[in-house]
Every structure is written in structure tokens, then in C-alpha cells.
Amino acid sequence: MDLVSKLNKALKIGSGQSGSNSFRHENEAEILATAKEILAQSPTGAGLLKFSVENRIEMHVLKNKQDIGFLPDKSVAYISCPAGQKMPTLKAVIHLAGALRQAEQETEPHLKRPQPSQMPKDRYVQAFIAKDKDILFTQTKVVAELAKVNGLLEIVDEFASMGYLSLYQAYQEDTEPQGLQ
User: Fold this and answer.
1) What is the DSSP string of 30-88?
2) Which of 51, 95, 134, 155 is 20 to 30 A removed from 104 (C-alpha atoms)?
3) What is the pTM of this model?
């Protein structure tokens, strides 16, 4: 059994169960619906959601004390929220954008997940850094769009709490004079 299958089995994906023995969040449907609704308000986020539908990317919410987003397989994206929570945090929305961008990267030859056996270690590290920079740029763009277009300024505070305020400010400075926002 491969790693993704083991993870899916442990998370009980596909079994319709999300009981107390599951890592799946008990309010997964509500959290994802709200996170997608917020993400869709950003043109970049709407594009990521469209991609996810067209490419049948599954999305799941795990129970975890910290909000994270990741893509262990090119067809399944995970975010996490604390147990008992009924609504996603804005960090979860940011992480969903990142996880969906990871999925989208798998369709772009220069950003596909590198295989360590197919390249020297330094190129492997550089490839992952390029992927991470691209994801972070996408998340920054989503945050800026949600803040500007929808007035959702709280998302900037959440992005700042993640340590990226200077990145957001640089993005603002770089795009505002050119009218690119």
C-alpha cells in the first residue's frame, strides 16, 4: 500500500466515516463550503476553485490545533482546523489557496513535484524552493484581492500573524502604482 493510500485509510477517506476515531474534521462540509465561498470572492481564488472542479481535486479538513494546508497527492488537498470549530479561520482559507495551487503546479512541467532520485540534491532543493515561492505568491495575491476587492481586511491580519506582512506590503507597493490590483 502506498503512502497516500495509507494516509487516506487512516483518515477514513472514502468510507463516509468521520467519527471520533477519525482525523477528519466533524464539520468538514460546513468548513469547506465557507472556505470555498470566501476564496471564490478573489479572482485568483475563483480560478483555483475552477481548476479543482475541472481536475476533480478532493478537499478535506483534518482536526488539528494549527491551520495548515498541504497536498500529499496531486488529487487530494487538505486543510486543518481545530476540533469543534464550525467555521474556517481566514488562515484556513489562505492555506486552502496554497494547497490548491500545489495541485495546479502538478500540471505545470517546471513546477511539478520533483523526484529526489531524478536530480542532484541541490537542484531538488531549488525546485522545492521555487514551488514554495510560487505558492506563497499565490497566497499573497489572494489575500490582497480579498482585502481590496471585498474589504476583508482581517485576512491581512491573519497573513501578518503567519509572518508575511512584509511580503503583503511589498506586493501592494509593487502592484498598486501599476494599477495591477
Assistant:
1) HHHHHHHHHHTTSHHHHHHHHHHHHTT-EEEEEE-SS--EEEEETTEEEEEE-TT--S-
2) 155
3) 0.82
